[in-house]
């Protein structure tokens, strides 16, 4: 088996991992990335043509700086390549005044516009807005493009000299060495961003695999993107929806949650009566949830950093997470607080994870 030496190696080149590889490579490091499938594959949670991009993030106020960093980095990369990585159409949050969809964006610390019930009804006649519900408009939000962006991250890293090993399984991570069937990579720093596979490498992290369907609906004029921009809707206490309208290369996309109790056809029929509620295409997405639905990003040991627990809202942040991973791995100060993402937070002991997996770290 051939042994090579690297400054850093990234395991998994989906959303977080591809961005980490890119941001490490920009620092002039000798880096390698390993992906068990091809770049931009459809076997994880970084596919499906589009993802929502939100700046006023309702899940945690600490996420907004990461979304803005992603926008900054993608805008810079777009200027270099000529590709579009974010389309800022704005995004509408809808819900009762005390719902997370309304209170969360207002607490995000970025400019938003509060809309009355009447204003929501006037702006979005497609919606069956429930009595008392109001809206919050996130003007900098929109959509981004998972496969395109992942491929762009990896291509940018390769232009800077990164080695990329696709269709390659990682057999083991022992100390500071990553083993594949044909190669042993010794590295000063290892970043593990393996999506649902993170549980395999670090089984003590409290992650849950949640298969989640991505649903596409037949477009019609009133549901084109310019008339039906991205949205997140707390329709009721039992049901939430998210999605966006159609454009030149994709149809109407709508998801419903919780995925184990809500039938998407019934949900769409209730929420958008004029849209055909039968999806014409459904693709699986392998979401990985953490107990508090926040990411797990940070060091496990002196030499190992992890990123996972996307909890269904990770892609919009991935470029910013990649920058954080590069900063953490190289010992730089981070551009924002990462305490709320600390992977040790469930262990009861801030300095280490529970029952640290054998072989990881040194």
Summarize the structure.
This protein has helices spanning 15-25, 64-81, 100-106, 117-123, 146-159, 198-201, 264-271, 318-330, and strands at residues 2-11, 31-34, 51-53, 86-87, 91-95, 113-115, 134-138, 142-144, 163-165, 172-174, 177-179, 183-192, 208-217, 230-236, 239-244, 252-257, 281-289, 296-299, 304-308. With 362 residues, it is of the alpha+beta class. The relative contact order is 0.20.
Would you give an account of this structure?
Residues 7-327 form the FAD dependent oxidoreductase domain. Keywords: FAD, Flavoprotein, Oxidoreductase. Its cofactor is FAD. Residues 342-362 are annotated as: Disordered. It holds the Pfam family DAO. The chain is α+β, with helices and mostly antiparallel strands and 362 residues long. It has 2 domains: 2-48 and 146-206 and 291-341, FAD/NAD(P)-binding domain, CATH 3.50.50; 91-139 and 209-288, D-Amino Acid Oxidase, subunit A, domain 2 (D-Amino Acid Oxidase, Chain A, domain 2). It contains 8 helices and 19 strands. The strands form 3 sheets. Strands 1, 2, 9, 10, 11, 12, 18 and 19 form an 8-stranded mixed β-sheet that branches. The longest helix has 18 residues, at 64-81.
Task: Give the rounded overall mean pLDDT.
Answer: 94
CATH architecture of the largest domain: 3-Layer(bba) Sandwich
What is the CATH topology of the largest domain?
FAD/NAD(P)-binding domain
Beta-strand proportion: 25-35%
Number of strands: 19
What's the level 1 CATH class of the largest domain? Alpha Beta
First-last Cα distance: 23 Å
Rg over CA atoms: 20 Å
Poorly predicted tracts of residues: 349-362
Helix fraction, binned, reads 10-25%
Shape: elongated
CATH H-tier superfamily of the largest domain: FAD/NAD(P)-binding domain
Number of domains: 2
User: What is the ordering of alpha helices and beta strands?
Assistant: EHEEHEEHEHEEHEEEEHEEEEHEEEH
Number of helices: 8
Main sheet attributes: strand count, strand direction, barrel closure: 8 strands, mixed
From the helix content, strand content and strand pairing, which structural class follows? alpha+beta
Pfam families: DAO
GO molecular function: flavin adenine dinucleotide binding; sarcosine oxidase activity
Keywords: FAD, Flavoprotein, Oxidoreductase
Protein name: FAD-dependent oxidoreductase
């Amino acid at each position: 088996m051939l042994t090579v030496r690297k400054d850093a190696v990234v395991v998994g080149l989906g959303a977080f991992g591809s961005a980490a590889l890119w941001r490490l490579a920009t620092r002039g490091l000798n880096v390698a990335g390993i992906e068990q499938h091809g770049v931009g594959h459809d076997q994880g949670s970084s596919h499906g043509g589009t993802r929502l991009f939100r700046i006023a993030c309702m899940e945690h106020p600490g996420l907004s700086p990461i979304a803005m960093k992603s926008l900054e980095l993608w805008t810079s990369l777009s200027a270099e390549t000529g590709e579009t990585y974010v389309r800022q159409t704005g995004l509408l949050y809808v819900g009762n005044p005390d719902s997370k969809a309304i209170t969360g964006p207002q607490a995000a610390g970025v400019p938003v516009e509060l809309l009355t019930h009447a204003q929501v009804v006037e702006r979005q006649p497609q919606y069956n807005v429930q009595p008392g519900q109001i809206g919050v408009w996130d003007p900098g939000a929109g959509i981004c493009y998972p496969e395109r962006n992942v491929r762009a991250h990896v291509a940018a890293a390769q232009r800077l000299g990164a080695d990329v090993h696709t269709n390659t399984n990682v057999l083991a991570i022992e100390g500071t060495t990553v083993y594949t069937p044909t190669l042993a990579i010794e590295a000063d720093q290892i970043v593990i961003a393996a999506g649902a596979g993170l549980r395999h490498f670090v089984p003590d992290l409290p992650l849950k695999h949640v298969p989640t369907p991505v649903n596409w609906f037949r477009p019609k004029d009133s549901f084109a993107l310019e008339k039906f921009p991205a949205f997140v809707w707390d329709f009721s206490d039992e049901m939430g929806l998210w999605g966006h309208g159609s454009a030149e290369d994709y149809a109407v996309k709508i998801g419903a949650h919780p995925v184990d109790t809500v039938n998407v056809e019934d949900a769409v029929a209730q929420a958008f009566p004029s849209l055909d509620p039968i999806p014409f295409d459904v693709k699986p997405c392998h979401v990985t949830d953490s107990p508090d639905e926040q990411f797990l990003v940070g060091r496990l040991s002196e030499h190992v950093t992890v990123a996972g627990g996307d909890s269904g809202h990770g892609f919009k942040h991935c470029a910013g997470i990649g920058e954080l991973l590069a900063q953490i791995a190289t010992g730089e100060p981070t551009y924002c607080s990462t305490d709320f993402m600390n992977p040790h937070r469930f262990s009861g002991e801030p300095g280490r994870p529970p029952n640290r997996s054998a072989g990881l770290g040194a």
